[in-house]
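Standup notes
- DV: blocked on the single-chain target, sequence here:
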Amino acid sequence: MNKNTIIGFLLMGAVMVGFMWFGRPSKDEIARQQHYRDSIMAVQQANHQAEAERIATQQLVLDTIEVNNDSLRLTDQAGAFSVSAFGEEQFYVVESDLLRLTFTNKGGRIYSAELKKYRTHDSLPLLLFDGDESIVDFALATNNNRVIRTADMYFSKLGEPKTDAQGNTIFTLRLNTNDKAYLDFVYTIPKDNYMISFALQAKGLANIMPSGTNTLDMHWVSAIRQQERGRKFEDRYTAMFYKFAADNDVEKMSESKADSKRLTNTIKWVACKDQFFSTILIADDNFTYGNLSSQPQSENSKLLKVCSSELTVAFDPSGSRPTNFHIFLGPNQHKILSAYDKGLPSDEKFLFRKLVPLGWGIFGWVNMYAIIPMFNLFSKFISNFGLIILLMTIVIKLVIFPMTYKSYLSSAKMRVLKPEIDEINKKIPADKPAERQKATMELYGKVGVSPMSGCLPMLLQMPLLIAMFSFFPAAIELRQESFLWASDLSAYDSIFTLPFTIPFGFGNHVSLFTLLMTATTLVYTKLNNATMGTPDQPGAGMMKWMMYLMPLMFMFMFNSYASGLTYYYFLSTLLSIAQTYIFRATIDEKKLLAELNAKRNNKANSKGGGGKKKTGFMERLEKMQREQQKAMINNKKKR
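- DV (later): unblocked, structure below
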């Protein structure tokens, strides 16, 4: 590029810059242009706002038309009850010494139920249910083919709650009609009782409902909340229960899975029960029909199960006879539940006490007639439940002491005879077990020892051990009672939480009482094996290892159980160890062997006189030995 070309470009650039500089608008012109643009924008925004208002007004008109249409439909559907089809939900609180109940005018039902003397595991107010977790709903048919649900209707409060001469609080919610007819829900809340009364009192409904109406269909939903720390453990004791009117037993639904029942017999009551609390609905004149269902909830839910009941109950639309219910909202305490059966004929008893799982058969009897009376007796004088469990353990050990002593004495006799049994095993080869057993039993017969004498006392102790297994998780008295490091004897005692979960029921925590129980059981097992006089037989080694394995298996199972139970088993095993050492110190085995030999000599001397007649047990045992030996010979011949 030559010099002239460069100069030309520079001149052209200077001209353009000069033109732009001298041709730019003045400040007044810039202000006028900005004002013009702002005016255009304002007009556009005004147009947009007007359009939005037009659309909103149009939608409001459509919504109003839709609401009016819904109202017309609801009014038409409610029929004579249309006056109660609309309203604003309001709440009313009624309190007694034990309960704080919140009622809602929508449905005329109990909205929430709080037990004032109890708290949840995390120290919050204990609500059996709240909001839609419990719904009581009746279907009312009208003579113009309408069916309304009371749960959708708005009741009116009939004055303030009243108190009668007995201190009961009476609260009435009324479902009005377009005429003078109405339906009252009358609640009576006692001052110091967990059982409240609930009555349906009609007036003039015979003119509104179809002629011949004498029953109502009722829908009751009750969700069961988690109240305790150990959800899985609490869930084992959570279920739906019911009792037939003509049956002296209580039935229950499945605790672990979804379940449903179609009941055609008359039903006295239905209950939704968790580990320590229950909601029970009782019909004074029974339910004539029922469909029950129970649905477990996910582990992330605050609910354990949801119970649903479709029930049919007697109803008089004329109002000459009310439909009466009772509702129990309270703890599963055996003493409280049993009190409702006092003074009633046997065929009319409620049997609420069976909601407390004390065990079946003999185990329940042991708890009912021995353990619970002893527990209640100590509770009158001692407030520390750890000490009460200790005293109960000592008393139980003293009661079964004679059986324990007899069992140890039998094992001591077997032990001093072991050298002679070893000699028998040396003389008779292992391939002749029937002959070995026969010779061993003959030895026992000569010295007057029965192998069963050591087992029988242990078997007699089993009902007590199993009864205690049922008692502690069901004893609400232990709930949130602390002892040593355990903050709640009805739940597990966690000394630390693991960052992971151990399978097979162990969980993500470590229970110290469970560890102590396991350690003492292992020590007692070793001590027991050392004192047993059982001869060496095939499989005996495996049995010994199994005895050591069992406490470790129980450790996994009991780690999430009530600490009161593991504390009891720890104490019981500890006292058993102490008893064993006492027996060792007081029983002279040399003297015991001399006594057995003396019996053998006496029997030998008296043999000429016919000797002592064999017991039925010995005769049956020898017969079994002969049959076993005969079968073995026949098997050898076939081979």
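- Follow-up: Confidence is low (pLDDT under 50) at residues 64-72.
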